[in-house]
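In keeping with the milestone schedule agreed at the kick-off meeting, the structural modelling team has produced records for the first pair of proteins. Each record is given below as a sequence line and a C-alpha coordinate line. The laboratory manager (R.T.) confirmed that both were archived under the project's standard naming scheme.
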Amino acid sequence: MKMIVASLQEKRQTVSDNRLYQVLVGRRTATTLFFAVEAQVQAFHGLLPHLSKEQWQVFCQDNTRPNWDKIRLVEAKDLWLQANNQIPKAVRNLWWESFALLLQSLSYTRHQNNSFIPISQTHQAQHIVKLYFAHYRQKNRTMTKADIAKACFEEIKRFANQYPQGLNDLFWPQFSGDQVLGATVDQVARQANYDSREVALISSAYFDTLLATCIQSNGVLGEFFRLLVQHAHPWNQSIEITFCHLNEGLGMEEIARKRGLKVSTINDHLQEILLYFPQAFKQDFCQQLGQDLEAMPKNLPESYADFQALYGVDKPFYLFRLWQYYDRVKQLPLGGVWDD
Protein backbone atom coordinates (compact mmCIF):
# COMPACT_ATOMS: atom_id res chain seq x y z
CA MET A 1 0.00 0.00 0.00
CA LYS A 2 2.85 2.39 0.80
CA MET A 3 4.31 1.84 -2.66
CA ILE A 4 0.94 2.57 -4.26
CA VAL A 5 0.40 5.74 -2.24
CA ALA A 6 3.89 7.08 -2.92
CA SER A 7 3.59 6.42 -6.65
CA LEU A 8 0.19 8.11 -6.78
CA GLN A 9 1.56 11.29 -5.24
CA GLU A 10 3.75 11.71 -8.29
CA LYS A 11 0.96 10.91 -10.77
CA ARG A 12 -1.59 13.27 -9.21
CA GLN A 13 0.12 16.19 -10.94
CA THR A 14 -1.00 14.98 -14.38
CA VAL A 15 -4.18 12.96 -13.70
CA SER A 16 -7.36 14.22 -12.03
CA ASP A 17 -8.27 12.74 -8.64
CA ASN A 18 -11.55 11.33 -9.96
CA ARG A 19 -9.88 9.55 -12.87
CA LEU A 20 -7.26 8.06 -10.57
CA TYR A 21 -10.01 6.83 -8.27
CA GLN A 22 -11.76 5.07 -11.18
CA VAL A 23 -8.46 3.40 -12.08
CA LEU A 24 -7.72 2.31 -8.50
CA VAL A 25 -11.09 0.62 -7.98
CA GLY A 26 -10.71 -1.14 -11.33
CA ARG A 27 -13.55 0.43 -13.29
CA ARG A 28 -13.52 -1.08 -16.81
CA THR A 29 -14.89 1.50 -19.20
CA ALA A 30 -13.35 2.53 -22.50
CA THR A 31 -12.78 6.03 -21.12
CA THR A 32 -11.09 4.90 -17.90
CA LEU A 33 -8.85 2.47 -19.78
CA PHE A 34 -7.83 5.16 -22.27
CA PHE A 35 -6.98 7.73 -19.62
CA ALA A 36 -4.98 5.15 -17.68
CA VAL A 37 -2.86 4.36 -20.75
CA GLU A 38 -2.55 8.05 -21.61
CA ALA A 39 -1.24 8.84 -18.12
CA GLN A 40 0.79 5.61 -17.92
CA VAL A 41 -0.96 4.45 -14.74
CA GLN A 42 -1.97 0.95 -15.89
CA ALA A 43 -0.05 -0.40 -12.89
CA PHE A 44 -2.70 1.03 -10.55
CA HIS A 45 -5.76 -0.48 -12.22
CA GLY A 46 -7.87 -2.42 -9.73
CA LEU A 47 -5.24 -2.45 -6.98
CA LEU A 48 -7.64 -1.01 -4.39
CA PRO A 49 -11.08 -2.37 -5.39
CA HIS A 50 -12.66 -1.64 -1.99
CA LEU A 51 -11.39 1.93 -1.70
CA SER A 52 -14.27 4.22 -0.73
CA LYS A 53 -14.78 7.73 -2.03
CA GLU A 54 -14.41 9.01 1.53
CA GLN A 55 -11.03 7.30 2.01
CA TRP A 56 -9.88 8.62 -1.32
CA GLN A 57 -10.91 12.18 -0.49
CA VAL A 58 -8.94 12.03 2.76
CA PHE A 59 -5.88 10.89 0.83
CA CYS A 60 -6.31 13.63 -1.78
CA GLN A 61 -6.32 16.28 0.94
CA ASP A 62 -2.96 15.03 2.23
CA ASN A 63 -0.31 16.88 0.25
CA THR A 64 2.69 15.32 1.98
CA ARG A 65 5.08 13.49 -0.33
CA PRO A 66 6.29 10.16 1.08
CA ASN A 67 10.02 9.56 0.93
CA TRP A 68 10.84 6.56 -1.26
CA ASP A 69 13.95 5.88 0.80
CA LYS A 70 11.72 4.90 3.72
CA ILE A 71 9.65 2.47 1.68
CA ARG A 72 10.51 -1.18 1.18
CA LEU A 73 11.34 -2.39 -2.30
CA VAL A 74 12.44 1.09 -3.32
CA GLU A 75 14.55 -0.47 -6.08
CA ALA A 76 11.39 -1.87 -7.66
CA LYS A 77 9.62 1.46 -8.07
CA ASP A 78 10.41 2.12 -11.74
CA LEU A 79 9.79 -1.52 -12.66
CA TRP A 80 6.49 -1.71 -10.80
CA LEU A 81 5.15 1.33 -12.64
CA GLN A 82 5.44 -0.67 -15.89
CA ALA A 83 2.88 -3.26 -14.73
CA ASN A 84 -0.16 -3.63 -16.99
CA ASN A 85 -2.96 -4.45 -14.57
CA GLN A 86 -5.63 -3.34 -17.04
CA ILE A 87 -5.36 -6.66 -18.82
CA PRO A 88 -8.14 -8.95 -17.46
CA LYS A 89 -6.93 -11.20 -14.67
CA ALA A 90 -7.81 -14.43 -16.50
CA VAL A 91 -5.73 -13.38 -19.51
CA ARG A 92 -2.78 -12.25 -17.40
CA ASN A 93 -2.88 -15.55 -15.52
CA LEU A 94 -2.84 -17.47 -18.81
CA TRP A 95 0.11 -15.41 -20.08
CA TRP A 96 1.95 -15.99 -16.81
CA GLU A 97 1.22 -19.72 -16.75
CA SER A 98 2.27 -20.14 -20.37
CA PHE A 99 5.53 -18.31 -19.73
CA ALA A 100 6.17 -20.34 -16.57
CA LEU A 101 5.49 -23.55 -18.46
CA LEU A 102 7.87 -22.51 -21.24
CA LEU A 103 10.65 -21.83 -18.74
CA GLN A 104 9.94 -25.05 -16.87
CA SER A 105 10.23 -27.04 -20.08
CA LEU A 106 13.45 -25.27 -21.05
CA SER A 107 14.87 -25.64 -17.52
CA TYR A 108 14.35 -29.39 -17.61
CA THR A 109 15.88 -29.49 -21.08
CA ARG A 110 19.03 -27.91 -19.69
CA HIS A 111 19.05 -30.63 -17.05
CA GLN A 112 18.57 -33.22 -19.82
CA ASN A 113 15.29 -34.37 -18.33
CA ASN A 114 12.24 -34.32 -20.58
CA SER A 115 9.93 -36.10 -18.13
CA PHE A 116 8.23 -33.79 -15.63
CA ILE A 117 4.85 -32.77 -14.24
CA PRO A 118 3.83 -29.49 -15.96
CA ILE A 119 3.56 -26.53 -13.60
CA SER A 120 0.32 -25.61 -15.39
CA GLN A 121 -2.44 -28.10 -16.14
CA THR A 122 -4.28 -25.51 -18.23
CA HIS A 123 -4.93 -26.95 -21.67
CA GLN A 124 -4.61 -23.55 -23.35
CA ALA A 125 -1.21 -22.84 -21.75
CA GLN A 126 0.11 -26.26 -22.75
CA HIS A 127 -1.24 -25.79 -26.28
CA ILE A 128 0.48 -22.39 -26.64
CA VAL A 129 3.86 -23.76 -25.51
CA LYS A 130 3.63 -26.80 -27.81
CA LEU A 131 2.57 -24.55 -30.68
CA TYR A 132 5.52 -22.28 -29.99
CA PHE A 133 8.07 -25.09 -30.16
CA ALA A 134 6.55 -26.38 -33.41
CA HIS A 135 6.38 -22.87 -34.87
CA TYR A 136 9.93 -21.93 -33.86
CA ARG A 137 11.50 -25.15 -35.08
CA GLN A 138 9.75 -24.76 -38.42
CA LYS A 139 11.28 -21.30 -38.83
CA ASN A 140 14.68 -22.29 -37.41
CA ARG A 141 15.24 -25.88 -38.45
CA THR A 142 18.84 -26.01 -37.24
CA MET A 143 17.97 -25.07 -33.64
CA THR A 144 17.42 -27.79 -31.07
CA LYS A 145 15.35 -27.36 -27.92
CA ALA A 146 18.62 -27.02 -25.99
CA ASP A 147 19.61 -24.15 -28.30
CA ILE A 148 16.26 -22.48 -27.67
CA ALA A 149 16.76 -22.87 -23.91
CA LYS A 150 20.24 -21.34 -24.03
CA ALA A 151 19.07 -18.39 -26.13
CA CYS A 152 15.98 -17.82 -23.97
CA PHE A 153 17.84 -17.63 -20.67
CA GLU A 154 20.55 -15.44 -22.15
CA GLU A 155 17.84 -12.97 -23.23
CA ILE A 156 16.30 -13.00 -19.76
CA LYS A 157 19.69 -12.44 -18.12
CA ARG A 158 20.38 -9.45 -20.39
CA PHE A 159 17.02 -8.03 -19.33
CA ALA A 160 17.76 -8.75 -15.65
CA ASN A 161 21.07 -6.89 -15.81
CA GLN A 162 19.10 -3.63 -15.99
CA TYR A 163 17.84 -4.10 -12.43
CA PRO A 164 19.39 -4.38 -8.95
CA GLN A 165 20.36 -7.85 -7.79
CA GLY A 166 17.93 -7.66 -4.87
CA LEU A 167 15.04 -7.24 -7.28
CA ASN A 168 16.21 -10.08 -9.51
CA ASP A 169 16.47 -12.32 -6.45
CA LEU A 170 12.68 -12.04 -6.04
CA PHE A 171 12.14 -13.19 -9.58
CA TRP A 172 14.80 -15.76 -10.30
CA PRO A 173 13.86 -18.33 -7.64
CA GLN A 174 10.58 -18.66 -9.55
CA PHE A 175 12.04 -18.61 -13.06
CA SER A 176 15.61 -19.75 -13.48
CA GLY A 177 17.35 -21.65 -16.22
CA ASP A 178 20.01 -22.87 -13.81
CA GLN A 179 17.56 -24.33 -11.31
CA VAL A 180 14.51 -26.39 -12.12
CA LEU A 181 11.43 -24.22 -11.70
CA GLY A 182 9.81 -24.69 -8.34
CA ALA A 183 9.50 -21.81 -5.87
CA THR A 184 6.07 -20.24 -5.32
CA VAL A 185 5.35 -16.61 -4.50
CA ASP A 186 4.76 -17.53 -0.83
CA GLN A 187 8.07 -19.41 -0.64
CA VAL A 188 9.97 -16.51 -2.17
CA ALA A 189 8.25 -14.07 0.19
CA ARG A 190 9.24 -16.10 3.25
CA GLN A 191 12.83 -16.42 2.10
CA ALA A 192 13.14 -12.72 1.25
CA ASN A 193 11.18 -11.55 4.32
CA TYR A 194 8.65 -9.68 2.20
CA ASP A 195 4.89 -9.68 2.08
CA SER A 196 3.39 -12.11 -0.47
CA ARG A 197 1.37 -9.27 -1.99
CA GLU A 198 4.54 -7.27 -2.60
CA VAL A 199 6.30 -10.22 -4.20
CA ALA A 200 3.28 -10.97 -6.40
CA LEU A 201 3.08 -7.34 -7.58
CA ILE A 202 6.78 -7.10 -8.35
CA SER A 203 6.96 -10.50 -10.05
CA SER A 204 3.95 -9.58 -12.17
CA ALA A 205 5.50 -6.23 -13.09
CA TYR A 206 8.76 -7.99 -13.90
CA PHE A 207 6.93 -10.24 -16.35
CA ASP A 208 4.92 -7.36 -17.88
CA THR A 209 8.10 -5.34 -18.42
CA LEU A 210 9.92 -8.33 -19.89
CA LEU A 211 7.05 -8.88 -22.31
CA ALA A 212 6.90 -5.22 -23.39
CA THR A 213 10.70 -5.17 -23.79
CA CYS A 214 11.00 -8.37 -25.83
CA ILE A 215 7.78 -8.58 -27.83
CA GLN A 216 9.13 -6.46 -30.69
CA SER A 217 12.49 -8.26 -30.82
CA ASN A 218 13.56 -10.98 -33.24
CA GLY A 219 14.79 -13.26 -30.47
CA VAL A 220 13.40 -16.39 -28.89
CA LEU A 221 11.24 -14.49 -26.39
CA GLY A 222 9.94 -12.06 -29.01
CA GLU A 223 8.61 -14.99 -31.02
CA PHE A 224 7.02 -16.52 -27.93
CA PHE A 225 5.35 -13.34 -26.66
CA ARG A 226 3.91 -12.47 -30.08
CA LEU A 227 2.44 -15.96 -30.35
CA LEU A 228 1.13 -15.66 -26.79
CA VAL A 229 -0.69 -12.37 -27.43
CA GLN A 230 -1.97 -13.67 -30.77
CA HIS A 231 -3.64 -16.65 -29.08
CA ALA A 232 -4.75 -14.90 -25.86
CA HIS A 233 -5.83 -11.34 -26.59
CA PRO A 234 -5.75 -8.80 -23.71
CA TRP A 235 -9.51 -8.34 -23.32
CA ASN A 236 -12.64 -10.23 -22.26
CA GLN A 237 -14.63 -12.79 -24.23
CA SER A 238 -17.32 -10.36 -25.39
CA ILE A 239 -14.70 -8.09 -26.94
CA GLU A 240 -13.05 -11.15 -28.49
CA ILE A 241 -16.29 -11.91 -30.36
CA THR A 242 -16.40 -8.32 -31.61
CA PHE A 243 -12.76 -8.64 -32.68
CA CYS A 244 -13.55 -11.78 -34.69
CA HIS A 245 -16.41 -10.02 -36.49
CA LEU A 246 -14.13 -7.05 -37.14
CA ASN A 247 -11.63 -9.37 -38.81
CA GLU A 248 -14.47 -10.68 -40.99
CA GLY A 249 -14.77 -7.17 -42.40
CA LEU A 250 -17.98 -6.18 -40.60
CA GLY A 251 -18.54 -2.55 -39.63
CA MET A 252 -19.62 -1.28 -36.22
CA GLU A 253 -23.35 -1.17 -37.01
CA GLU A 254 -23.25 -4.61 -38.64
CA ILE A 255 -21.54 -6.13 -35.60
CA ALA A 256 -24.11 -4.52 -33.29
CA ARG A 257 -27.02 -5.97 -35.30
CA LYS A 258 -25.43 -9.40 -35.54
CA ARG A 259 -24.78 -9.54 -31.78
CA GLY A 260 -27.96 -7.82 -30.64
CA LEU A 261 -25.98 -5.16 -28.78
CA LYS A 262 -26.06 -1.38 -28.79
CA VAL A 263 -23.81 0.39 -31.27
CA SER A 264 -22.31 2.29 -28.31
CA THR A 265 -21.28 -1.03 -26.73
CA ILE A 266 -19.47 -2.12 -29.90
CA ASN A 267 -17.92 1.36 -30.05
CA ASP A 268 -16.51 0.77 -26.55
CA HIS A 269 -15.18 -2.63 -27.63
CA LEU A 270 -13.34 -1.05 -30.56
CA GLN A 271 -11.80 1.55 -28.25
CA GLU A 272 -10.37 -1.19 -26.04
CA ILE A 273 -9.07 -3.17 -29.02
CA LEU A 274 -7.30 -0.14 -30.47
CA LEU A 275 -5.44 0.41 -27.18
CA TYR A 276 -3.42 -2.71 -27.97
CA PHE A 277 -3.57 -2.94 -31.78
CA PRO A 278 -4.06 0.64 -33.02
CA GLN A 279 -2.23 0.00 -36.29
CA ALA A 280 -5.14 -2.20 -37.39
CA PHE A 281 -7.43 0.86 -37.38
CA LYS A 282 -5.21 3.21 -39.40
CA GLN A 283 -6.61 2.10 -42.76
CA ASP A 284 -10.18 2.48 -41.47
CA PHE A 285 -9.28 5.99 -40.28
CA CYS A 286 -7.93 6.92 -43.71
CA GLN A 287 -10.97 5.53 -45.53
CA GLN A 288 -13.49 7.36 -43.34
CA LEU A 289 -11.66 10.69 -43.02
CA GLY A 290 -9.85 10.71 -46.36
CA GLN A 291 -6.46 11.35 -44.79
CA ASP A 292 -3.70 9.29 -43.20
CA LEU A 293 -3.47 9.47 -39.42
CA GLU A 294 0.12 10.70 -39.67
CA ALA A 295 -0.94 13.60 -41.90
CA MET A 296 -3.69 14.89 -39.59
CA PRO A 297 -3.29 18.41 -38.12
CA LYS A 298 -1.40 18.63 -34.85
CA ASN A 299 -4.12 20.71 -33.20
CA LEU A 300 -6.68 18.16 -32.01
CA PRO A 301 -10.35 19.15 -31.79
CA GLU A 302 -11.22 19.96 -28.19
CA SER A 303 -14.18 17.58 -28.08
CA TYR A 304 -15.98 14.87 -30.00
CA ALA A 305 -18.61 17.46 -30.99
CA ASP A 306 -15.87 19.60 -32.56
CA PHE A 307 -14.52 16.49 -34.31
CA GLN A 308 -17.98 15.77 -35.78
CA ALA A 309 -18.38 19.40 -36.83
CA LEU A 310 -15.15 19.13 -38.82
CA TYR A 311 -15.54 15.64 -40.30
CA GLY A 312 -19.25 14.80 -40.15
CA VAL A 313 -21.79 13.71 -37.55
CA ASP A 314 -21.68 10.15 -38.86
CA LYS A 315 -18.06 9.66 -37.78
CA PRO A 316 -17.86 7.23 -34.81
CA PHE A 317 -16.25 8.15 -31.52
CA TYR A 318 -13.56 5.47 -31.75
CA LEU A 319 -11.96 7.38 -34.67
CA PHE A 320 -11.72 10.50 -32.51
CA ARG A 321 -10.21 8.40 -29.73
CA LEU A 322 -7.70 6.89 -32.17
CA TRP A 323 -6.58 10.37 -33.19
CA GLN A 324 -6.18 11.38 -29.52
CA TYR A 325 -4.26 8.18 -28.87
CA TYR A 326 -1.86 8.78 -31.76
CA ASP A 327 -1.26 12.36 -30.66
CA ARG A 328 -0.80 11.75 -26.93
CA VAL A 329 0.57 8.23 -26.38
CA LYS A 330 3.92 7.31 -27.92
CA GLN A 331 4.69 4.06 -26.07
CA LEU A 332 2.08 1.35 -26.63
CA PRO A 333 0.98 -0.82 -23.65
CA LEU A 334 2.38 -4.03 -25.17
CA GLY A 335 5.64 -2.41 -26.24
CA GLY A 336 6.65 -0.95 -29.56
CA VAL A 337 5.70 2.33 -31.20
CA TRP A 338 3.03 3.52 -33.61
CA ASP A 339 5.00 3.08 -36.79
CA ASP A 340 5.92 -0.58 -36.20
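The second protein of the pair:
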Amino acid sequence: MIPIATTRQGRRYGGVMALAVLVTAVSATAQPVADAARAADWDTVRTLIAEHADITAGQGDGATALHWAGYWDDTAIASLLLDAGADASAANDLGATPLWTAAENGSEAMTDLLLAAGADPTAALLSGETVLMTAARTGNVAVVRALLGSGADVDATEHGRHQNALMWAIGQRHAGVVEGLLEHQPDLRARSDVRTEVVKTTPEPWNPDYIVDLPQGGYTPLLFAARVGDLASARLLVSAGADVNDT
Protein backbone atom coordinates (compact mmCIF):
# COMPACT_ATOMS: atom_id res chain seq x y z
CA MET A 1 0.00 0.00 0.00
CA ILE A 2 1.55 3.29 -1.10
CA PRO A 3 0.44 6.32 0.91
CA ILE A 4 -0.48 9.51 -0.90
CA ALA A 5 0.58 12.49 1.18
CA THR A 6 -1.45 15.66 1.40
CA THR A 7 -1.04 19.06 3.00
CA ARG A 8 -3.67 21.70 3.29
CA GLN A 9 -1.52 24.57 2.11
CA GLY A 10 1.14 22.85 0.01
CA ARG A 11 3.57 25.63 0.91
CA ARG A 12 7.36 25.85 0.93
CA TYR A 13 8.92 27.66 3.88
CA GLY A 14 12.37 29.07 3.27
CA GLY A 15 13.42 25.96 1.40
CA VAL A 16 11.96 23.67 4.04
CA MET A 17 8.95 21.86 2.63
CA ALA A 18 6.11 21.44 5.09
CA LEU A 19 5.98 17.72 5.78
CA ALA A 20 2.98 15.99 4.29
CA VAL A 21 1.94 14.04 7.32
CA LEU A 22 -1.74 13.38 6.92
CA VAL A 23 -1.42 10.40 4.64
CA THR A 24 -4.54 9.51 2.71
CA ALA A 25 -3.90 5.82 2.26
CA VAL A 26 -7.09 3.82 2.08
CA SER A 27 -7.31 1.46 5.00
CA ALA A 28 -7.83 -2.21 4.32
CA THR A 29 -10.60 -2.01 6.91
CA ALA A 30 -12.97 0.94 6.91
CA GLN A 31 -12.92 3.10 10.02
CA PRO A 32 -16.29 4.86 9.91
CA VAL A 33 -15.59 7.70 12.33
CA ALA A 34 -12.18 8.59 10.94
CA ASP A 35 -13.42 8.21 7.37
CA ALA A 36 -16.36 10.52 8.01
CA ALA A 37 -14.13 13.07 9.71
CA ARG A 38 -11.71 13.02 6.82
CA ALA A 39 -14.63 13.87 4.53
CA ALA A 40 -15.80 16.58 6.97
CA ASP A 41 -19.12 14.71 7.22
CA TRP A 42 -19.86 16.03 10.67
CA ASP A 43 -23.46 14.81 10.83
CA THR A 44 -22.22 11.26 10.37
CA VAL A 45 -19.48 11.80 12.94
CA ARG A 46 -22.04 13.03 15.49
CA THR A 47 -24.30 10.07 14.78
CA LEU A 48 -21.45 7.59 15.18
CA ILE A 49 -20.35 9.19 18.45
CA ALA A 50 -23.91 8.92 19.75
CA GLU A 51 -23.93 5.25 18.72
CA HIS A 52 -20.68 4.67 20.67
CA ALA A 53 -18.66 3.79 17.60
CA ASP A 54 -14.91 3.36 18.01
CA ILE A 55 -13.62 6.92 17.82
CA THR A 56 -10.01 5.97 18.52
CA ALA A 57 -9.57 3.70 15.51
CA GLY A 58 -7.08 4.96 12.96
CA GLN A 59 -7.03 4.71 9.20
CA GLY A 60 -4.31 2.86 7.31
CA ASP A 61 -1.73 5.51 8.20
CA GLY A 62 -2.90 5.82 11.81
CA ALA A 63 -4.83 9.07 11.38
CA THR A 64 -7.82 9.24 13.71
CA ALA A 65 -11.01 11.26 13.62
CA LEU A 66 -9.39 13.77 15.96
CA HIS A 67 -6.54 14.29 13.48
CA TRP A 68 -9.09 15.18 10.83
CA ALA A 69 -11.06 17.44 13.16
CA GLY A 70 -7.78 19.26 13.72
CA TYR A 71 -7.03 19.31 10.01
CA TRP A 72 -10.38 20.95 9.31
CA ASP A 73 -9.99 23.14 12.43
CA ASP A 74 -13.41 22.16 13.78
CA THR A 75 -13.22 22.68 17.53
CA ALA A 76 -16.84 21.68 18.09
CA ILE A 77 -16.26 18.21 16.64
CA ALA A 78 -12.90 17.94 18.38
CA SER A 79 -14.61 18.69 21.69
CA LEU A 80 -17.19 15.97 21.06
CA LEU A 81 -14.47 13.47 20.22
CA LEU A 82 -12.42 14.37 23.28
CA ASP A 83 -15.46 14.13 25.54
CA ALA A 84 -16.10 10.68 24.09
CA GLY A 85 -12.57 9.52 24.90
CA ALA A 86 -10.42 10.42 21.91
CA ASP A 87 -6.67 10.37 22.54
CA ALA A 88 -5.35 13.93 22.28
CA SER A 89 -1.81 12.64 21.74
CA ALA A 90 -2.50 9.92 19.18
CA ALA A 91 0.19 9.86 16.49
CA ASN A 92 -0.08 8.67 12.91
CA ASP A 93 2.64 6.67 11.18
CA LEU A 94 4.78 9.76 10.59
CA GLY A 95 4.42 10.97 14.17
CA ALA A 96 1.82 13.66 13.54
CA THR A 97 -0.59 14.28 16.39
CA PRO A 98 -3.80 16.33 16.36
CA LEU A 99 -1.77 19.11 18.00
CA TRP A 100 0.52 19.14 14.96
CA THR A 101 -2.48 19.87 12.73
CA ALA A 102 -3.46 22.74 15.03
CA ALA A 103 0.05 24.16 14.81
CA GLU A 104 0.13 23.71 11.04
CA ASN A 105 -3.14 25.65 10.80
CA GLY A 106 -1.98 28.27 13.31
CA SER A 107 -5.16 27.62 15.27
CA GLU A 108 -5.05 29.06 18.78
CA ALA A 109 -8.48 27.69 19.69
CA MET A 110 -7.66 24.12 18.63
CA THR A 111 -4.26 24.29 20.31
CA ASP A 112 -5.79 25.43 23.59
CA LEU A 113 -8.47 22.75 23.40
CA LEU A 114 -6.00 19.93 22.80
CA LEU A 115 -3.52 21.10 25.42
CA ALA A 116 -6.33 21.29 27.97
CA ALA A 117 -7.19 17.69 27.05
CA GLY A 118 -3.64 16.56 27.77
CA ALA A 119 -2.00 16.69 24.34
CA ASP A 120 1.78 16.33 24.49
CA PRO A 121 3.40 19.71 23.69
CA THR A 122 6.76 18.03 23.08
CA ALA A 123 5.49 15.70 20.36
CA ALA A 124 7.55 15.50 17.18
CA LEU A 125 7.34 13.99 13.73
CA LEU A 126 9.69 11.16 12.85
CA SER A 127 11.84 13.82 11.18
CA GLY A 128 12.28 15.50 14.55
CA GLU A 129 10.09 18.49 13.66
CA THR A 130 8.38 19.41 16.91
CA VAL A 131 4.94 20.92 17.24
CA LEU A 132 6.67 24.10 18.42
CA MET A 133 8.79 24.21 15.28
CA THR A 134 5.67 23.84 13.16
CA ALA A 135 3.97 26.67 15.04
CA ALA A 136 7.07 28.85 14.71
CA ARG A 137 7.05 28.25 10.97
CA THR A 138 3.37 29.02 10.48
CA GLY A 139 3.61 32.14 12.61
CA ASN A 140 0.85 32.38 15.23
CA VAL A 141 2.59 33.73 18.33
CA ALA A 142 -0.37 32.81 20.56
CA VAL A 143 0.03 29.15 19.55
CA VAL A 144 3.77 29.35 20.18
CA ARG A 145 3.26 30.86 23.63
CA ALA A 146 0.63 28.25 24.51
CA LEU A 147 3.01 25.43 23.61
CA LEU A 148 5.92 26.96 25.49
CA GLY A 149 3.70 27.55 28.51
CA SER A 150 2.77 23.87 28.46
CA GLY A 151 6.34 22.60 28.40
CA ALA A 152 7.50 22.59 24.78
CA ASP A 153 11.30 22.51 24.42
CA VAL A 154 12.44 25.79 22.90
CA ASP A 155 15.81 24.35 21.84
CA ALA A 156 14.67 21.06 20.27
CA THR A 157 15.99 20.47 16.74
CA GLU A 158 14.89 18.45 13.75
CA HIS A 159 17.07 15.61 12.52
CA GLY A 160 17.93 16.81 9.01
CA ARG A 161 19.88 20.02 9.56
CA HIS A 162 19.46 20.42 13.31
CA GLN A 163 17.53 23.65 12.99
CA ASN A 164 15.30 24.77 15.83
CA ALA A 165 12.07 26.71 16.28
CA LEU A 166 13.87 30.06 16.54
CA MET A 167 15.67 29.47 13.26
CA TRP A 168 12.43 28.49 11.54
CA ALA A 169 10.61 31.56 12.84
CA ILE A 170 13.42 33.78 11.57
CA GLY A 171 13.43 31.99 8.23
CA GLN A 172 9.81 33.08 7.78
CA ARG A 173 10.44 36.58 9.22
CA HIS A 174 7.98 36.04 12.05
CA ALA A 175 9.43 38.65 14.41
CA GLY A 176 6.49 38.33 16.80
CA VAL A 177 7.17 34.62 17.16
CA VAL A 178 10.88 35.32 17.63
CA GLU A 179 9.98 37.65 20.48
CA GLY A 180 7.79 34.97 22.06
CA LEU A 181 10.53 32.37 21.79
CA LEU A 182 13.11 34.73 23.29
CA GLU A 183 10.93 34.97 26.41
CA HIS A 184 12.00 31.38 27.11
CA GLN A 185 15.77 31.95 26.80
CA PRO A 186 16.65 29.83 23.75
CA ASP A 187 20.30 29.12 23.03
CA LEU A 188 21.39 32.04 20.85
CA ARG A 189 24.69 30.29 20.08
CA ALA A 190 23.04 27.18 18.63
CA ARG A 191 24.14 26.40 15.08
CA SER A 192 22.59 24.38 12.31
CA ASP A 193 24.56 21.49 10.87
CA VAL A 194 27.40 22.11 8.44
CA ARG A 195 27.12 20.21 5.17
CA THR A 196 29.32 20.17 2.09
CA GLU A 197 28.18 21.32 -1.35
CA VAL A 198 30.23 20.35 -4.39
CA VAL A 199 30.66 23.30 -6.77
CA LYS A 200 32.16 23.43 -10.27
CA THR A 201 34.10 26.69 -10.71
CA THR A 202 34.41 26.66 -14.50
CA PRO A 203 31.95 26.16 -17.38
CA GLU A 204 34.44 23.80 -19.01
CA PRO A 205 33.79 20.06 -19.08
CA TRP A 206 34.21 18.17 -15.85
CA ASN A 207 37.70 18.69 -14.47
CA PRO A 208 38.57 17.66 -10.92
CA ASP A 209 41.00 20.58 -10.69
CA TYR A 210 38.05 22.97 -10.78
CA ILE A 211 35.82 21.20 -8.30
CA VAL A 212 35.65 22.60 -4.78
CA ASP A 213 33.81 21.53 -1.66
CA LEU A 214 32.07 24.49 -0.07
CA PRO A 215 30.78 24.24 3.49
CA GLN A 216 27.15 25.27 3.91
CA GLY A 217 25.17 25.79 7.09
CA GLY A 218 26.52 26.21 10.58
CA TYR A 219 24.31 29.25 11.09
CA THR A 220 23.26 30.80 14.38
CA PRO A 221 19.84 32.46 14.69
CA LEU A 222 21.45 35.86 14.06
CA LEU A 223 23.11 34.59 10.90
CA PHE A 224 19.73 33.26 9.74
CA ALA A 225 18.30 36.75 10.28
CA ALA A 226 21.14 38.29 8.28
CA ARG A 227 20.67 35.82 5.43
CA VAL A 228 16.94 36.52 5.05
CA GLY A 229 17.19 40.25 5.79
CA ASP A 230 14.98 40.08 8.87
CA LEU A 231 16.00 43.31 10.59
CA ALA A 232 13.25 43.16 13.21
CA SER A 233 14.31 39.72 14.38
CA ALA A 234 17.99 40.70 14.26
CA ARG A 235 17.32 43.61 16.60
CA LEU A 236 15.47 41.33 18.99
CA LEU A 237 18.31 38.82 18.95
CA VAL A 238 20.99 41.43 19.58
CA SER A 239 18.95 42.90 22.43
CA ALA A 240 18.72 39.39 23.89
CA GLY A 241 22.50 38.99 23.80
CA ALA A 242 23.30 37.48 20.41
CA ASP A 243 26.89 37.97 19.27
CA VAL A 244 27.01 40.63 16.55
CA ASN A 245 30.37 39.19 15.45
CA ASP A 246 28.91 35.78 14.58
CA THR A 247 30.52 34.26 11.50
